[in-house]
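Technical note accompanying the year-one report. For the benefit of new consortium partners, we illustrate the data format agreed upon in the data management plan: each record pairs a sequence with a structure-token string. No post-processing was applied to the example shown here.
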Amino acid sequence: MTHTLADFSVTRKWPAQHPERIQLYSLPTPNGVKVSIALEEMQLPYEAHLVSFQTEDQLTPEFVGTFPNNKIPAILDPQGPGGQPLALFESGAILIYLAEKSGSPLLPAAPAARYETLQWLMFQMGGVGPMFGQVGFFHKYGGKDFEDKRPRDRYINESRRLLGVLEQRMQGRAWIMGEQFTLADIAIWPWVRNMVDENGYNAGELVGWQNFPQLQRVLAAFVARPSVQKGLNIPPRG
């Protein structure tokens, strides 16, 4: 049975102006920009749709009907495997899919390098993202008013440890995997940036950012990439 984009509920709320392109449903958060940066790096044609948390777009029947975990980012590829549309959520799965679809060197072809890249991608998904996100909650958002600071401090300490792992990894390396920029970098550095940026969690002092010179160096190089400069603001917040 052949499907079209019209068969996916998400397109009722966010109609495709360019139905031949990959449809991106996102917001410029640390997770969201992973996919927009990857799409820019791979130079894949795409159309971006803003999913606003302020109006709880991610909870609407149209969004949940296609992406049941009601999280961004998500994509709908009109030319998925076998020429059939494919809807995907979870940023890590999307990054791997896009790299394999495009044959991009962002996911190395050599088996050892491929699995090591995936290892660092999972390091972000299982450690950096959840732990840094908790720092943001307890430092900047709802949890900042909790009198008991033990939860906050627990996540700060674990985030410092993770930053230390990265600091050691970056000794003598341009990127996570060495000279080659990969999916691991696309996954990790938006979260590091958000931790210390004044428009993000602004928690650099809490985690001791001054103690991580290698991370400062690599983050500056990351933000300087044209694909990153563009991807960090896609989709525009309106």
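Partners are asked to follow this layout when depositing records. The chain has ten helices and four strands.
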